[in-house]
Each structure stands twice: as structure tokens, then as C-alpha cells.
Amino acid sequence: MTAYAELMAFQRETEALSAVMGRLGWDQETVMPRGAAPQRAEEMGAMEGVLHARRTDPRIGHWLAAATGADEVEEANLRHIGRSFRRASKVPADLAAEIARVTSRAQGIWAEARAAEDFAAFAPVLEEVLNLKRAEADAIGGPDRYDTMLDDYEPGATAAELGRMFGAMRPRLAALRAAILDEGPHPALEGDFPEASQLLLSAELAVAFGYDMTRGRIDEAVHPFSSGSGLDVRITTRTVPSDPFNCLYSTIHEVGHAAYEQNVDPAYLLTPNGAGVSMGVHESQSRLYENQLGRSRAFTGWLFERMRGIFGDLSTPDAAAFYAAANRVHPGFIRTEADEVQYNLHILLRFDLERALVAGDLAVADLPDAWNERFLADFGVAVDKPSNGCLQDVHWSVGLFGYFPTYTLGNVYAGCLHEALRRDVPELDEALARGDTSPATSWLREKLQRHGGVYRPREAIERATGHDVSEGPLLDYVEAKFRGIHDL
């Protein structure tokens, strides 16, 4: 066997074990008994120890030194393995295992603290997680600790670069938000919507957006997510009897993630190229599916009639009012429920706060006050309880520092992709009005999803669109859409 073949045979087993680790996380979020949490923390710590040992196996260094890629696919596999090996080799095995154990335990503590509205109960373990992640970043090294963390999720991105992009976005979004709220929000969709019917419709929508149920499943979770790759890609959603949009659009969002994973070229299964290339590119799929497609005037026209068929007459009298309700802009605390105008303002808040936490400029004990002060300044509303403030997201409990900015970067990528999609598929609205998303999902599969991790994140977007990445298309789309809805 060549060095490349030996390396890939070894990597295939590592990828399979990593998938098992992911399944443990899925189980913990969906069906694991609450009392199993301490044991699960030990199981995940042990599994992480095994994976860390494989990722730092000295033979990988020898194989990498001897291997050459015959084409861009093989070269990409070597790039991914080399990057992972260099990073993992710098992190002590006991630190990697401790991070896995503590974050598994912290997730349960966060959930209980959130339910009890008790930040003080969560603060000690958050401090522990933060210190462990700092130690990990310091072990890996680099000029900026936060950039090292960010590189886990969006290789090649820097906080300075994102800060400039986000700075260009904030004034236009804030001005648009203010103009819309001065006019007052459109009426919301109201009523009682049986949860069983919501779940049936969400499953129908998942299939309509291209989710292959023979290689996936839909479960319920507090915080919807997608898990897995290749032949086993699972999603979760949630239901609120008074708000069917919560369920339906959570499902469409997670299908965007899942479709990306399911549509990667099968030849890349259980290789580094066999998954989405970054969190930002991943988020571009989920946000485009949810917003530019799922909340479009054309698709909501179809959804209006479908929901009337299931739930009877709706509080929105016609398709135009339903479209406005599906895109309703109103003050709110929760990031995952935010509209397209305000969503990125939620992310910018988290981006700035977590950078301050990582740098030591903000103490964990002071996080609630800092959050509440910033939220009041940005949104004009005082946070009423921790679950609506700094306890609303699971991310910091599981150590995902550097993850939040990829949400806004994903929106920027989605704006670029949507502009190119509209250019290439001029008849798109006609199909969406029939509930047919296939012209869009087929375009995305061909232009982006099938390539998996072969291209670097920005390169993947620029190859798909034919243009440099810019925040301009997203801002132009949001302004045109919402000024149209509100006659501004």
C-alpha cells in the first residue's frame, strides 16, 4: 500500500469512531435518561481519549510526510488530516479528555440552571469550561487565542476580519430595524395548533426540501440541531402549540444542514471530505433553506393553503397577511426566534461578549449584567430573566467559543448564494409557489453540497457564485424584502 492508502485506511476508522461519538451526543440531547448524565460524561471522556490518541498517532506524521495527492480530492484529504494532526498533537491527551468530560457534565448543569433561572448555579462550571478551552487554545498556539478557537469552526477566518464585516452590517441593520418598529409589527399567526399535526407537517416539509428519511429521522429536542453525516444524518425540532412557525421553520433550518451532509458525493464517505467544510458554509445552507426559500412570498403562498388544509381557517385572512406573519419583525429576546432583520444583531452581541470572556476582559460572574446592558442598548428591551438572556444558548456550556460568529458569516454566505441562485434559476418563484423546492435544492447540491470538504470555505462559496464573498448581497436582500413588506 502507498503512504496515502495506509493513511486513508487508518483515517476511515477514525471517522467511523467519530461518528459513534456524535451519536452519543445525539442520544444525550434526545432520548437519554436524565439520570444517566454522570455516566455519559465518563463515556464521552473515554471516547474522546481514544479519538485523541488516533488523531495524534505518530504514524500520521510519517504518512503525511510520504504521501502525495493525485488530484484535488486527495490533496484536500491530506490538508484536512494534516491540519487536524497538527492541532491535536499540541493538545495533551488528558486535557482533551477532561474537556469532553466537563462539557458533557456542564450541558446538564446548564439545562437545569436555565430551567431554574439560576445563573449562579451555572457560573462555576462555565468558568471551568472557559479555563479548559483557554488552555486548549494556548496549547495549540497562535497570535490570538480567540482566532485559534474560531479556526475550529471556520478555518482561515479571523476575528479582526469578521469584526470589519460585522461593523459594516450593523448600521444598515439597526436603521432598518428602527424604521420597521416605528411602523409597528404586522399581526402574528394566532391560534391553537395541535403538536401532532405540526410534527406531521414538519415531516412533510422536510421531505419537500430534499431530506432523505431513509438515511435520517426527526426527533424533538429543547434546542433543535442536526447530527451526523453520510448515511446517517438526524435532525431534531420542537413544538409550541401556539406557534407552529417555531416547529416548521426549525425543521426546514435543520434540513438545510442535513441536506448538505446527505448530498456530499458518496465517494467521500468516512473521509475528511465527507462532511460540510465549515460551520459558516453549513449555516449558509440552513439559513437559505429557512429564509430565502422557506419564508419567500412564493413558498409561503403555498404553505398558507397547506396549513389551512390541515388546521382549518387561520387568523391571517390571506396569503399576503400570512407572508407578513411568517416574516414578522417584533422585539424579542430569543436568538433562534429572531427575524432576518434582527438575527445578526443577536450574534454580534454574543461575538463581542465571548471575545471579552476569552480575553479575560469580562469575568464570568459579570456576564449577566454585561449581557443585559448590551441587549438593552441594541434592542431597547430589558432582559427579564436569565433564560431570555445569557442562559438561552447551549453553546458556551459545551465549549463552543468561536462558534457564534459563524452564524452571521453563514447568513452572509447565504446572501451570496441566493443572489447567484436567482441569477441562474429565473423561474424559481414559479416552482416555489407549487411547493416545489427542487430547482433550488438541485442547484445547491450541484454547485456546493456535493463537494463536501474538497474546497476551503470561502473558495467553496466563490466557486458556487462566481463572485467574492461580501456582506452586500445579504443586506440588499434583507432591505428589499422587508421594506417591501412594510411599504417603507
TrEMBL record:
<dbReference type="InterPro" id="IPR001333">
    <property type="entry name" value="Peptidase_M32_Taq"/>
</dbReference>
<comment type="similarity">
    <text>Belongs to the peptidase M32 family.</text>
</comment>
<feature type="active site" description="Proton donor/acceptor">
    <location>
        <position position="254"/>
    </location>
</feature>
<keyword id="KW-0479">Metal-binding</keyword>
<feature type="binding site">
    <location>
        <position position="253"/>
    </location>
    <ligand>
        <name>Zn(2+)</name>
    </ligand>
</feature>
<feature type="binding site">
    <location>
        <position position="257"/>
    </location>
    <ligand>
        <name>Zn(2+)</name>
    </ligand>
</feature>
<keyword id="KW-0862">Zinc</keyword>
<dbReference type="GO" id="GO:0004181">
    <property type="term" value="F:metallocarboxypeptidase activity"/>
</dbReference>
<dbReference type="GO" id="GO:0046872">
    <property type="term" value="F:metal ion binding"/>
</dbReference>
<dbReference type="Pfam" id="PF02074">
    <property type="entry name" value="Peptidase_M32"/>
</dbReference>
<comment type="function">
    <text>Broad specificity carboxypetidase that releases amino acids sequentially from the C-terminus, including neutral, aromatic, polar and basic residues.</text>
</comment>
<dbReference type="GO" id="GO:0006508">
    <property type="term" value="P:proteolysis"/>
</dbReference>
<keyword id="KW-0482">Metalloprotease</keyword>
<keyword id="KW-0121">Carboxypeptidase</keyword>
<keyword id="KW-0645">Protease</keyword>
<feature type="binding site">
    <location>
        <position position="283"/>
    </location>
    <ligand>
        <name>Zn(2+)</name>
    </ligand>
</feature>
<protein>
    <recommendedName>
        <fullName>Metal-dependent carboxypeptidase</fullName>
        <ecNumber>3.4.17.19</ecNumber>
    </recommendedName>
</protein>
<keyword id="KW-0378">Hydrolase</keyword>
